[in-house]
Design a protein that fits this description.
The chain has 219 residues and is an alpha+beta fold. It has four helices and eight strands, in the order αββββββββααα. The strands form two sheets. A four-stranded antiparallel β-sheet has the order 1-3-6-5, with no helix packed on it. Strands 2-8-7-4 form a four-stranded mixed β-sheet, with no helix packed on it.
Length: 219
C-alpha cells in the first residue's frame, strides 16, 4: 500500500517565520539594552542657573546598585577644576552630589557613572551654565596698615621735648638771678641801716662831752 506525505501550506509557515523574526528583532535589543537610564537632573542638562547650587541630583529609571565604587559623579568648572564635595550618595534611583559653596560663572560639565539594577554599568555626561559667580571677594587687609601708621605717627611728640628743654632753662636762671639780686639788695640795705645806726649812736655820745667841756670855762 502506497502512502503519500501531506504537505503543509507554505503561507502559514512563512507567516510564522516572519513573526519569529520580528519578535527577535524587536524584543531582543530591548532586553539587551534594558539598563537604567537618566530621566532627570537638577540642574538640567543644557540649562542655565543663577549660581552653582549646593547639590546636584540625578534621577534614574530604576533603583541603582549601591556598592563601593559603583557610583561616581564628577562636576568640573570652566577651568576644569572639580567642584564636587565628598562622594555621591545613592537613595534608590536618586543620586545626590554635594557641590562647593563658592564657584565661578561659566559652563560646568557633569560626568556620571552608575551600576544599573541589572548589574551593568552605564555612564554619560552633560553640561549646564552658571550665570553668576558665588565666589566671595577677599577682604581688604591693607586698610589696617594705614590706621596703625596713623595712630603711630602722632605718638612721638617731638615738638614737646625741645620746647620743654628750652623753656625751663631760662626760668631757672631768671629765678636764681632775681633771688641773688634780692639777697644782695637785702644785705646792702642791712649794711646801710647798720651804718646809720652806728653813726647816730656815735653822734649822741659826742654831744654830752662837748657840753661838759664848755661849762667850767664860763665860770
Amino acid at each position: 500500500m502506497k502512502t503519500t506525505a501531506r504537505r503543509l501550506p507554505a503561507a502559514p509557515v512563512a507567516l510564522a517565520a516572519a513573526l519569529l523574526t520580528a519578535f527577535l528583532v524587536l524584543f531582543a535589543p530591548l532586553s539587551a539594552s534594558a539598563h537604567d537610564s537618566l530621566l532627570a537632573s537638577s540642574p538640567e542638562a543644557d540649562s542655565t542657573v543663577d549660581t552653582l547650587p549646593a547639590e546636584l541630583t540625578l534621577t534614574f529609571s530604576a533603583k541603582l546598585i549601591d556598592e563601593t565604587g559603583a557610583t561616581e559623579v564628577v562636576v568640573t568648572d570652566p577651568a576644569g577644576n572639580s567642584v564636587a564635595e565628598g562622594a555621591a550618595t545613592v537613595e534608590g534611583a536618586i543620586v545626590t552630589q554635594q557641590l562647593a559653596t563658592e564657584a565661578p560663572a561659566g559652563v560646568y560639565t557633569v560626568t556620571w557613572k552608575v551600576v544599573s539594577s541589572d548589574g551593568h554599568p552605564t555612564s554619560n555626561k552633560f553640561d549646564f551654565t552658571v550665570a553668576n559667580s558665588s565666589e566671595v571677594a577677599p577682604t581688604a587687609e591693607p586698610s589696617a596698615d594705614p590706621t596703625d601708621t596713623a595712630t603711630a605717627a602722632p605718638s612721638p611728640v617731638a615738638t614737646a621735648d625741645p620746647g620743654s628743654d628750652a623753656t625751663p632753662a631760662p626760668t631757672n636762671d631768671d629765678s636764681s638771678a632775681s633771688a641773688a639780686l634780692i639777697w644782695v639788695l637785702a644785705i646792702a640795705g642791712v649794711l646801710v641801716i647798720a651804718g646809720i645806726v652806728v653813726w647816730l649812736v656815735a653822734r649822741s655820745r659826742r654831744a654830752p662831752d662837748s657840753t661838759d667841756s664848755d661849762a667850767p670855762s664860763e665860770r
